[in-house]
Design brief:
The protein is an alpha/beta fold. Helices cover 35% and strands 21% of the residues. Helix 9 runs antiparallel to helix 10, helix 10 runs antiparallel to helix 12 (276-293) and helix 26 packs across helix 29 (847-856). The radius of gyration is 36 Å and the shape is elongated.
Length: 982
């Protein structure tokens, strides 16, 4: 299948040829007489262009000659041409622009040098080539024959001993003594023996399969041609419009660069250097430069990769930490998350493996570097290979590890190359593969350092290959980076679907509104972005537009957005993505198109960065609404502006995952990569946006340590626990804080009387005000229990329902504020109606009343089934209101059970999810309340607890730095075929 948009610019081919001739003239002070076109690609049109430029001869491939003659060039059993005069004679091609001589290379001779002789001794290889030439000479007869050897001269020598010099010396030495063989240039031969044969037409083709299939036809090639055609047509429009000058010349130059054939060689599946992503990025960079040279914005598609990921590439970076057992049994599943360099695929079909190794696997955990070398061998007999591994780094010793075969295994010895001392030794069993672990301690490099490794394989004492052939395999030493004074401030973008005070449904908004202020106070450049919902008043918050008509791709179509800017507090910038189609409606969630709305928001958050001039070090995404951002960065945003951005995903509540059908991938333009096939039942056949975030983010955290552990179990894992266990190494827990500027009884203007830890007795005045407000008897001796909650089972409302009859027999008052399931709403209404002296129930949510409950209650009830973090217990202890909680998630991390003997703890805690255990803690709290001295100490403990954002913000900074380090490591692995490093 050909590209949808044809590329038709023969004038560029003429210009490319003219520039090449000029370069030759500058270098050699003369014009070239002939050419071997790139990849020996010729056709009638190419010959005419060459004639126009005064080129006398061209070289093609024997396969093209065969098709042009319409016959078969047959060889005998020893590979000699049956009719040698057909291949070894020049041909004349006449065109309206002049004549050109055509010569065709002997593909077998050329490929022998390119791909075979590298694995033979120099003399052996040279003798074989001379013998083949002698075979051609013997069939010569009276006609002069010219055997043309043509190959990519720069490509093969890396595979030869000493870059091919021993082979070339041996070859030219033999040729100098062969009286019957003469080395000549093509111009010399044509000068003495002009062409007597002619071709009426040239079958278009190259030295690869005598066709152009390698450069066009599959999806990626076609897309690359279409991108090129669009850019070149744009340039033509500018030229026709009379645009001229230096900018136009610069745009033309960029177009000529992008047209180079090597871009298309590496696209698609025909060949794989491991550099596909690099070629892709460079190709699109030059196309973007065409537009930008002419002061035009490049199309959004040029910021999206053409090359798609594949499991069959020559190299893969590690996905996460691994800890294989190394018990002598190779379990591929243990290594699947590691990285590899595939020797057999490293240079595509044109470079078959000739060495001793098939694939190198590598990966690490916190203590060890794991290496596995899969050996090439026939049947079950391993090759007699031995290995030398060289480790180098900028800040540590240069080491050599020798793997010496001993019976069925290998002796491993790590030595310091400079000190000539042994640092570590071990032994490993091996049959079809050699696998072992090297402790990072033995390698002698600090955490954060990068160690580069090269492997050399030996057979019978002779080096047979170096892997990788250029560059090295790079591994970053895990662990905390050693400090050396204050670290550089970070640039952070926090992306959230809700942010207090602008729009709030749950605790996510509180975190997104408070954490940035704490990060700013630590000296970091933090900015926030959220949707501009219809409920957000532009004038009230002083929002101003900073970007208009920002094109944001959704389902391969641009949809414009406006970006508004405001402030959180005094100095934290917050951006609002404004698009009435998606966000100009009543409400925030629960719409049929929520997937489209939040994918659009996520794309807009990325697209706004470049025009705003803000390039964050890390993007912090929150919950399923924005969890697609790490996925988008990995697949659609590969250009340098985005490449170094790390990502952190915070899971505030695993119960909400953003589960949709396959069409959601089309909205995100991720459908070319399809569903994530993790092998986990229930996740393989759906689009789970939170799951994709877990998969692609550099670091993941929940909002408490306990919850990070709980979600790894089926009880709390919401059917995602198998995936979370796979990525356990990048899962962390950081407890939320609360905003001390908002929740501060000493400064809270909404409460009746302000107080602090030293004047907590004034809290009684807030209690009387609360009792009066909700219509309960104003009796200071009756303990008041507050409940502010969504009224769902998750919050333990079923436990409360089972003991309501018992609570009504106790001397207490219960003040309820919340909404949710109708059965619980009605339960509280009924109890308030039946027990007006004991229960007050306000169905709904009133922020001011909530503050009054925190300040005026004696106790606060949170018997949650699960609680990722919980803010209610944090606010309540800030106000000296003692929480009664179940030990789960963040409740377990922040509330310690009161110990009257040691006078420690800040609340009342029960373990089992049982209504009688809850009832027992309520009774215990009431009894403690009746002991004023004990109660005052308990309140002091609670109010002294540090639940501010300062401590948590410092932990987030540490997590950001961990993510940045992991992302940098991933980038190093991703560049595995770069000449500068694996």
């Amino acid at each position: 299948m050909l590209p949808r948009l044809p590329f038709r610019h023969p004038e560029d081919a003429r210009e490319q040829l003219r520039l090449g001739i000029e370069a030759h003239r500058r270098a050699f002070s003369t014009a070239p007489r002939g050419i071997w076109p790139p990849e020996a690609a010729i056709a009638d049109e190419v010959a005419r262009l060459a004639a126009q430029q005064g080129i006398a001869w061209m070289i093609g491939d024997e396969g093209v000659l065969e098709k042009s003659l319409g016959t078969t060039l047959s060889r005998d059993g020893e590979g000699r041409m049956m009719q040698p005069e057909l291949l070894y004679s020049p041909y004349r091609f006449d065109s309206r622009d002049g004549a050109v001589d055509l010569l065709f290379r002997d593909a077998r001779l050329s490929n022998a040098i390119g791909f075979e002789y590298q694995n033979a001794g120099p003399d052996e290889a040279a003798k074989d080539l001379i013998d083949r030439l002698d075979g051609i000479r013997q069939g010569q007869g009276d006609a002069p024959l010219l055997a043309v050897i043509a190959l990519d001269g720069e490509n093969c020598w890396d595979f030869y001993e000493a870059n091919g010099n021993p082979f070339l010396r041996a070859l030219y030495g033999r040729l100098s003594h062969e009286a019957e063989l003469k080395t000549v240039t093509i111009s010399e031969f044509l000068g003495e023996f002009p062409a007597t044969r002619s071709l009426s037409r040239i079958e278009p083709g190259s030295w690869i399969n005598a066709s152009f299939d390698t450069w066009v036809g599959d999806e990626e090639h076609n897309m690359a041609w279409e991108r090129l055609a669009e850019a070149r047509d744009f340039l033509s429009e500018q030229e026709r419009g009379g645009k001229a000058g230096a900018k136009l010349e610069l745009a033309r130059r960029e177009a000529l660069i992008a047209e180079g054939s090597d871009w298309f060689w590496w696209f698609g599946r025909s060949h794989d250097s491991g550099m596909d992503q690099i070629w892709d990025s460079l190709f699109r960079l030059h196309l973007r430069n065409i537009y930008m040279s002419l002061d035009q914005a490049p199309p959004p598609g040029l910021y999206q990769p053409i090359v798609k990921d594949t499991q069959d590439t020559a190299a893969k970076r590690p996905e996460r930490k691994i800890t294989p057992k190394l018990n002598g049994v190779l379990d591929d599943g243990e290594w699947q998350a590691g990285g590899y360099v595939d020797v057999t695929a490293l240079f595509g079909a044109m470079h078959p493996p000739r060495g001793a190794l098939r694939r190198i696997w590598f990966g690490h955990d916190d203590r060890n570097l794991y290496l596995r070398f899969d050996l090439l061998g026939e049947g079950h007999a391993p090759r007699p290979v031995e290995l030398e591994l060289r480790f180098n780094g900028h800040n540590g010793p240069s080491l050599r590890l020798h793997a010496t075969r001993m019976n069925r295994g290998f002796e491993l010895t790590l030595t310091d190359a400079e000190a000539n001392s042994t640092r570590w030794s071990s032994r490993a069993e091996a049959q079809q593969a050699l696998a072992f672990a090297v402790p990072f301690d033995a390698l002698g490099h600090d955490p954060g350092d990068t160690i580069e490794m090269v492997a050399i394989a030996y057979e019978n004492g002779k080096a047979v290959e170096q892997l990788p052939p250029t560059g090295a395999i790079a591994v970053r030493v895990p662990g905390e980076i050693a400090g050396g004074g204050p670290q550089t401030p970070l640039k952070i973008l926090l992306v959230s679907a809700e942010v207090a005070p602008f729009a709030k449904v749950g605790g996510l908004a509180d975190v997104a509104g408070a954490l940035p202020k704490a990060l700013r106070a630590l000296g970091h450049d933090v900015r926030v972005v959220m949707p501009r919902y219809g409920s957000i008043d532009v004038e009230k918050y002083g929002l101003r537009p900073v970007l208009r008509d920002l094109p944001v791709a959704l389902a391969h179509q641009p949809v414009n957005a406006t970006v508004l800017e405001g402030r959180i507090g005094e100095d934290v910038p917050i951006y609002f993505i404004d698009n009435a189609q998606f966000f100009g409606r009543e409400g925030m969630y629960g719409f049929w198109d929520d997937d489209a709305r939040f994918i659009y928001f996520s794309r807009a958050a990325l697209e706004m960065l470049r025009p705003l001039g803000f390039q964050p070090d890390v993007i912090h995404v929150n919950d399923w609404h924005t969890a697609v951002i790490p996925n988008l960065l990995a697949k659609l945003y590969s250009d340098p502006f985005y490449a170094a951005i790390a990502t952190v995903l915070t899971i505030h509540n695993l119960a909400f995952q953003g589960v949709y059908g396959y069409g959601t991938l089309h909205l995100a333009e991720l459908e070319p990569w399809g569903l994530i096939k993790s092998g986990i039942g229930g996740l393989d056949d759906i689009v789970n946006l939170l799951g994709r975030g877990v998969w692609f983010a550099d670091a993941v955290n929940t909002v408490s340590n306990r919850y990070a552990e709980e979600i790894l179990t089926p009880e709390y894992g919401e059917k995602m626990d198998p995936l979370l266990r796979v990525f356990k190494s990048k899962l962390h827990g950081i407890i939320n804080g609360i905003d001390y500027e908002v929740f501060n009884p000493e400064r809270d203007a909404s409460i009746a009387t302000r107080y602090d830890i030293a004047t907590v007795e004034k809290k009684a005045e807030n209690k009387r005000a609360l009792q009066q407000e909700v219509g309960l008897p104003q009796n200071p001796s009756i303990p008041v229990i507050g409940l502010i909650s969504r009224l769902y089972d998750q919050k333990g409302l079923d436990l409360i329902a089972n003991i309501m009859w018992g609570l009504m027999r106790l001397n207490l008052q219960l003040v309820v504020l919340g909404a949710g399931d109708s059965r619980y709403e009605e339960m509280f209404r009924a109890n308030a109606r039946d027990n007006p002296l004991k229960v007050s129930a306000t169905i709904g949510f009133k922020p001011v009343l909530a503050q009054h409950i925190y300040a005026g209650s004696d106790m606060f009830l949170m018997p949650s089934r699960f609680e990722p973090c919980g803010l209610g217990q944090l606010i309540s202890i800030r106000y000296g209101t003692i929480p009664i909680v179940r030990a789960t998630g963040g409740l377990a991390d922040t509330i310690q059970d009161w110990d009257p003997v040691r006078q420690t703890g800040n609340g009342f805690v029960f373990e089992a999810y049982d209504h009688w255990d809850l009832y027992a803690q309520v009774v215990r709290a009431l009894e403690t309340y009746r002991q004023p001295q004990q109660w005052r100490r308990l309140q002091a403990n609670a109010m002294a607890s540090d639940v501010s954002w300062t401590n948590s913000a410092n932990k987030y900074v540490g997590l950001y730095r961990t993510a940045i380090s992991r992302h940098a490591e991933a980038q190093e692995y991703a560049q595995t075929a770069s000449p500068s490093g694996w």
